[in-house]
Amino acid sequence: MSTAENPVIVGIGPVSHEDVVRVARHGAPVRLSDESVAAMDETRRHIESLAQSPTPVYGVSTGFGALATKHIPMEMRTQLQRSLIRSHAAGNGPEVEREVIRALMLLRLSTLTTGRTGIRSVVAQTYAALLSAGITPIVHEYGSLGCSGDLAPLAHVALAVIGEGEVRDADGVKRSAADALAAAGIEPVVLAEKEGLALINGTDGMLGTLVMACHDLHRLLKLADVTAAMSVEGLMGTDQVFAADLQALRPQPGQAVSASNISRMLADSPIVASHRHDDGCSIVQDAYSLRCAPSVHGGARDTLAHAYLIASNELASAVDNPVVTLDGRVESNGNFHGAPVAYVLDFLAIVAADVASMSERRTDRFLDKARSHGLPPFLADDPGVDSGHMIAQYTQAAIVSELKRLAAPASVDSIPSSAMQEDHVSMGWSGARKLRKVIDGLTRVLAIEALTAARGLDLRAPLVPSPATSAVVAAIREKVAGPGVDRWLAPEIEAVVGLAAAGTLVTSAEAVTGSLG
What we know:
2 domains; histidine metabolism
């Protein structure tokens, strides 16, 4: 069954990590459960009764933020909601990627369907309709401080739901929201009390990015183990340091997984066997970038596990302010503050940058004849005439340097807003935006290590690598020729980046090792 025939059902319970990826990246349509529609309708009746009360209720019959003390008469409340969305749709800069916007929309919809926001079910149905039709509101890079939710990004989405602003249709064509909705047979929503606020008060942009980052890093940390094993083998390192009993002396769970992956990659390697019992071997201990790979990759895995837990907790949340409690109270709260998500977005950027840094160090060892144990300088065919992979390492180094800058945490910054009412913010959206760049950079760095290690392993002939690393080399050789005179290197690097991003290098290894941890 194709993704398009298998909709994601959004109900009162949380959507899964997998459903976020399906909707965001693979265009899965969305349908609301009957239970969620009933819950929204029941809560909405309560909100409508409060709207008739002379007692001001924040978000229902008052202004917003620093203007919360102003009571809004009945005849002005539709204008109030429309004005809120228009004024908050103040984003600027480049367009945000389609998958991020779709994730944001799904997660806002997930909160709406809990019945805790007080919106009418027709509003949620309209969000589902836009997602299913492939209509993506245009959201801009700058505008969210990660507190009071991702206000500007969410407001740009809400603007499209009321038939204003700009979108891209299912074919990626930029159109007015009014035209795109009409073409899809979707009626724009006229917002009523409480609804405008409910559409923009959430951590959905940063959370959607976090969920996709967890998905990507799970795969990339496997790839880091694969490339580390290729480098250990190609640099005549030992596999003995990855033994389970040695790793058990430091019972960090991620480290054990990484060491096991590397050991399985190196199993039955003639290259490793060729120097395992060589009494004349001058290598007492391998360099840290080889020997300590499980410590770094494992620490990254443990950080990822924590980030996954935080993301799961946030997926189970109903983030709105004010919120309608189970017993019918409409209460202000601080659950929109993005700190928990912002912190782990920063944590992941730090560990991804460090994994990339270690990968670059392994690559550099292949290119230095003083440290590569018999390989030609820069792995060149005719050193001096040819430069081999010299500048591939420069490219890696440039990326790693950028990743180190991006690893500086966004969440330690705060700029007060809204006339000092919102005097501490999370900057979680900024953390999310830079993490996407870090993940792209890590993919590229690991791809260059794989490309270089594959060349190094080929140059060890007549010795052959392990069955698992041989499978990875074979996958690379389907796109990039083996050692020889200098060729245009950029397309070869990009081809392996594509293999890394698609997961092909890992699946090639797993065809031999079985599923890696």
